[in-house]
Design a protein that fits this description.
- The protein is an alpha/beta fold.
- It folds into four domains: about 180 residues, 3-Layer(aba) Sandwich (Rossmann fold), CATH 3.40.50.300; about 160 residues, Rossmann fold, CATH 3.40.50.300; about 60 residues, no CATH class; about 70 residues, Gyrase A, domain 2 (2-Layer Sandwich).
- About 45% of the residues lie in helices and about 15% in strands.
- α4 packs parallel to α5, α5 crosses α6 and α8 packs parallel to α10.
- It is globular, with a radius of gyration of 29 Å.
- The protein binds adenosine monophosphate.
- The site of adenosine monophosphate has 17 residues, from α5.
Length: about 600
């Protein structure tokens, strides 16, 4: 299967209008179209109040499973979609993953199937990928965990037919699957579809991108005519609207304007890095954050080589790509969820729909093909209302894509620098302090153990004449191991890059100002703060300071860092290691005469 993507599509005005133009469908119930602002999901802490779901009229089994899941209140998409689906209406929903859309269609369908005694499936859910199929099936299973004799089966490619066939032979209520495998089972007669009375197309735009349109239409044509149809899509390109027009009957239309809100929880950053420094830059980023990370790369080959390199640096890593058998992929995701693996190196297709709450950082090691891919990638973090971070690697050639990406997603992606030795070493020190403090004996409740360790200490003091400091140092050395604790590889390329290559990115002055504001995190060490004795009382503004510095010295405006103006003085971050002559010129600088 080939992804039909256009690497230049950030530029595509056509795509922009397809995806963002909320121009309504020519459907009968336009006046009923609901546009809803999404909010972060609430995750239960402590007392559970199920009132939020009671009004939908769900049976006790569903309410009980929601209680077990810790869901307090319905999300906006659930509030809007559940009543419509309970009434049996068709539904066209524009919503991203992370909005709670799975429960929005799963809960009412489970409710409607509560007393189903028939053997054949009544609901079919189609998803673009195996991963999403597994996830949606898991959601159905957990929401119906308290409902007796409710069966959900997932059917997708890459796994043996036999288990799927025998599962489909027994009683089944919901079948979730990918188009190719669904077609196979229908053709072979192993999936009986005559009782299907509801079809859900999940992530329809993604199915379209993956070239499934014909398959979807073929499947729809095989299903009984009289059925409820639900179509969810993150974007609404014309093709999706056409499918909706063709197959949906008087649908309720819901638009969750969530793209901004949801991605706001994700702090989006980019760093400029030349191709040959990418792996080093990645390792440096992982020094600051290495628990719950997904790294996106373009090729399967790269997933393995990067994973190997990271493993050699001591990380717990796994690979997710199309070559890995399905059961192994499921196992990998499970281990990631449980914390046995910290880092996943994945290709886009393999990581579609991945929903792992502990993902805190997404690294776009290779630039994404288009904005949908980018949005999907970064959406692997910031799940269920949590916050997350996404870092995009950009090289000189990709700078135009970066600007187009910012425009088309209407977000600001902030620039950061590759962490230098100084930053990394500070972080290592911080971690060491935490670790030593966490494992301090005072916290050990076992008195017997304590006594034994104190014996060891006494022995060290008496037998080897070690004092407290020596013992502590030796213990720390043991923790650190043989390798050098501090990084001391040559990092001059980072400093050079910060001062020169960033300038070449040639971003507009707004971006420059924006960048300077967040230089606190990674960049402090490449700047030095200069104090000037002019300030607000002198009527000085940022623009005056920049132009004076640039006019009086050879300092480029883009390499000026943070500027803070106080009443009678100003602080300006300037590149470290300025030439003495430049420093002298700075001393004589005049602003607004
Ligand atoms: P989805 O958009 O269906 O992929 O769901 C995103 C995440 O939100 C999943 O981890 C769900 O378990 C979680 N979720 C869905 N509905 C709720 C809710 N009402 N309250 C809390 N979490 C929810």
């Amino acid at each position: 299967m080939v992804l039909k993507k256009d690497s230049n599509s950030f530029n595509s005005e056509q795509e922009k209008s397809q995806n963002e133009d909320p121009s309504p469908l020519e459907l009968k119930n336009l006046e009923n179209k609901k546009e809803i602002e999404s909010q972060p999901l609430e995750v239960s802490e402590g007392n559970y109040n199920e009132n939020g779901f009671i009004d939908f009229g769900f049976n006790q089994s569903i309410l009980s499973s929601l209680r077990n899941k810790g869901y307090k209140n319905p999300t906006p998409i659930q509030k809007a979609a559940i009543p419509e689906l309970m009434l049996g209406r068709d539904l066209l929903g524009q919503a991203q993953t992370g909005t709670g859309k799975t429960a929005a269609f799963a809960l009412p369908l489970i409710e409607k199937l509560a007393d189903n005694k028939e053997l054949n499936a009544k609901v079919l859910v189609m998803t673009p990928t195996r991963e999403l199929a597994t996830q949606v099936a898991e959601s159905f299973k957990s929401y119906s965990s308290e409902s007796s004799n409710f069966k959900t089966v997932a059917i997708y490619g890459g796994t043996d037919y036999r288990n799927q066939i025998s599962a489909l032979k027994r009683k089944v209520d919901v079948v979730v699957g990918t188009p190719g495998r669904i077609m196979d089972h229908i053709r072979q007669g192993t999936f009986k579809i005559k009782d299907i009375n509801c079809l859900v197309l999940d992530e329809a735009d993604e199915m379209l991108n993956m070239g499934f349109l014909e398959d979807i239409e073929w499947i729809i044509d095989q299903l009984p005519e009289n059925k409820q149809m639900v179509l969810f899509s993150a974007t609404m390109p014309t093709e999706i609207r056409n499918i909706a027009k063709k197959y949906l009957n008087d649908p309720a239309e819901i638009l969750i304007k969530s793209v901004k809100k949801e991605t706001q929880l994700i702090s989006q950053k980019f760093l400029y890095v030349q191709r040959h420094h990418k792996l080093d830059a990645l390792k440096r980023i992982l020094e600051l954050n290495n628990e719950g990370v997904i790294i996106f790369v373009r090729t399967k080959l790269l997933t393995t080589s990067i994973a190997e390199a990271l493993e050699n640096s001591g990380h717990t890593v796994a690979v997710l790509n199309g070559d890995i058998p399905q059961n192994q992929r499921e196992n990998t995701v499970d281990r990631l969820k449980k914390g046995f693996i910290d880092i996943l190196v994945a290709t886009d297709v393999a990581a579609r729909g991945l929903d792992v709450e502990r993902i805190k950082l997404v690294v776009n090691y290779d630039f994404p093909f288009d904005k949908e891919t980018y949005t999907h990638r970064i959406g692997r973090t910031g799940r269920a209302g949590r916050s997350g971070e996404a870092i995009l690697f950009v090289n000189q050639r990709e700078k135009h894509f970066l600007r187009n990406l910012e425009n088309s997603t209407r977000t600001t992606i902030e620039e950061i620098n590759i962490p230098s030795n100084k930053i990394i070493n500070e972080k290592r020190m911080e971690k060491l302090l935490e670790n030593v403090n966490d494992s301090s004996l005072a916290k050990d409740e076992n008195e017997e153990n304590k006594a034994l360790i104190i014996d060891v200490l006494d022995n060290l003091k008496e037998k080897y004449s070690m004092d407290d400091t020596n013992i502590a140092m030796a213990a720390i050395n043991l923790v650190i191991g043989n390798k050098s604790f501090f990084v001391n590889e040559d990092d001059s390329w980072i400093h050079k890059q910060n001062n020169t290559d960033r300038n070449r990115l040639n971003r507009n002055s707004n971006n420059r100002m924006r960048n300077s504001n967040r230089r606190n995190n990674y960049q402090n060490d490449s700047f030095e703060t200069y104090k000037f004795n002019f300030g607000k009382y002198d009527g000085v503004r940022v623009a005056n300071i920049i132009s004076s510095i640039c006019n009086s010295t050879n300092i480029n405006g883009r390499s000026i860092g943070k500027i803070q103006i106080f009443n009678d003085y100003s602080l300006v971050d300037l590149p470290r290691d300025l030439h003495r002559e430049t420093k002298n010129k700075l001393k004589k600088i005049k602003v607004r005469n």
